[in-house]
Structure formats: C-alpha cells, structure tokens
Amino acid sequence: MIELMNVTKEYNNGVKALNNISINIDKGEFVFLVGPSGAGKSTFIKLLLKEVEPSSGRIILNGQDITKVKSRMIPHIRRSIGVVFQDFRLLPNKTVYENVAFAMEIIGAPYKNIRRQVPMALSMVGLSNKADSYPNQLSGGEQQRVSIARAIVNNPGLLIADEPTGNLDPDTAWEVMKIIRRINRRGTTVLMATHAKDIVDVMKQRVIALEKGQVVRDEQRGVYGYEG
Ligand code: ADP
Ligand code: ADP
C-alpha cells in the first residue's frame, strides 16, 4: 500500500528531515509513527499527501509512483487518503452533517451518495444524534469524532492521523482510539503519528520510530520506547 524507497527530504535550509529511509506498509496494517519532535514524522506524512516533494527516492502509493505524477493528479491521490489532525479543523459555520457532507461535495460526489454515506459515517463514530449540532456545541472528543467521520466518508484506503488524541483527556482519547481501531478492522490502513505513550504501549501494534530523519526501530507489536 505504501512503499518508501531510499527517500530523502532535504529542505531549502539544508535540514535533512528524512535521510534515506525505506519503509513498507501493507494494506490493512495499523502503524504508529513515533519519535521526538523534529524526527521527521510530519515530513513523512506531508510526502504521502504530496504537500512536499522528496529530494530523492521513490514513494509508491497503491501501486503508483506518486513522485512522478502530474500535478493535476494530486487531488486524485489525496482523495485516497483520509486525514485527521490534532486540532480537528472543522468548519465552525457548518453543522456536523454539513462538515462531513462537505468532504464529499468538494470531490463532486452525487447528491444521493452524500445522502447515503454521511449518515453511515456519523453512525460509525457514534454521532448520528449530533448531525444538526455545530462544532462549538460539541466536546473535544465529539469534534474529533466528526473529523474522523469526515476523513472516512469517501471510503479512503488509508487513514492518516496526526496526533489525533493530543488535545483530548485520557478517557476521551481512548474512545477515539477505539473508533480508529474499528475503522482499521474494516480494512482501512491506519498510519498514526503520536506522542501518546500509554496508547502505543497498550495497543501493541506496529511501531515505526524515527529519530533525526532515520528509522531507528520498526517492530510488530511494538512499544513507544521514549520518555517524553
Ligand atoms: P516531527 O514531525 O517529527 O516533529 P518534522 O518533519 O516536522 O518532524 O521536522 C523534521 C526536521 O525538518 C526538523 O529539523 C524541522 O525543523 C525541519 N523542517 C520541517 N519543516 C521544515 C521546513 N518547511 N523548512 C525547513 N526545515 C523544516
Ligand atoms: P437539502 O435541504 O437539499 O436536503 P441537505 O441534504 O444538505 O440539503 O441537508 C439540509 C440540512 O438538513 C442540513 O443543514 C443538515 O444539517 C440536515 N440534514 C440532512 N440530512 C440529514 C441527516 N441524515 N441527518 C441529520 N441532519 C440532516
């Protein structure tokens, strides 16, 4: 599903955010991406979303070399990836339903598909009863669940979560993790960058640890392995 071959990303200032890394992630895997601040986690995610270009190396996503595609194909690539952020990024003037529907509208999905899929996505995250609420009427955990519904409503093969529990208290964080795990069990590949040591240690999933732009650890049923 995701294959990085000897990928290096050097920014204009000469910083090598990723230094010759090779990583393989199969369809359906659940992967934690860990490492201290500055290790290269965000750069890794941005490369997959084509927000930055590698300086060298190849990145294969769903069998396609995304380092070679034309820029007009970028929206098509992004469509195959759902993204969840630490700070939710919901539209404040749209309801829960409209926030999720919007992700389908912008890709030009037919109205009848929107009508069908938005309620399914909201049900998946346990928020069917909040469809008409606005984001500021929801708790942090509920807002994150809306953002997860938005990320999965187009049925992406890959869900990227960048520190999704960073703004949540521990109980709420676990509710969100259960939902992400359920989405993974239905076949969606999950890549989650996190500093949540407890969650990583309890869930015993694959852990890829970055440090100074290199893979220092890649373990099935791994642990967080850092102090901070
Ligand atoms: P992490 O997400 O693990 O904190 P990042 O990928 O954000 O790591 O950063 C990796 C390294 O690249 C850091 O040294 C950071 O300062 C540097 N970096 C990130 N983005 C840029 C940029 N746009 N320009 C220059 N350096 C950057
Ligand atoms: P239309 O007015 O053409 O039906 P929409 O389907 O976008 O337009 O929905 C209009 C309003 O109805 C939205 O503000 C939305 O909050 C609400 N809504 C639509 N479908 C649902 C649903 N399945 N559950 C809850 N609210 C819904």
Automatic annotation (TrEMBL):
GO function term, MF aspect, one: transmembrane transporter activity
Subcellular location: Cell membrane
Job description of the protein: Part of the ABC transporter FtsEX involved in cellular division.
Keywords: ATP-binding, Cell cycle, Cell division, Cell membrane, Membrane, Nucleotide-binding
GO cellular component: plasma membrane
Bilayer topology: Peripheral membrane protein
Record family assignment: Belongs to the ABC transporter superfamily.
Gene3D superfamilies on file: P-loop containing nucleotide triphosphate hydrolases
InterPro entries: AAA+_ATPase, ABC_transporter-like_ATP-bd, ABC_transporter-like_CS, ABC_transpr_LolD-like, Cell_div_FtsE, P-loop_NTPase
Family annotation (PANTHER family): CELL DIVISION ATP-BINDING PROTEIN FTSE, IMPORT ATP-BINDING PROTEIN
A Pfam short name: ABC_tran
Domain ABC transporter positions: 2-227
Keyword Cell cycle among UniProt keywords: yes
GO terms (BP aspect): cell division
Listed name of the protein: Cell division ATP-binding protein FtsE
NCBIfam families in the record: FtsE
Subunit structure: Homodimer. Forms a membrane-associated complex with FtsX.
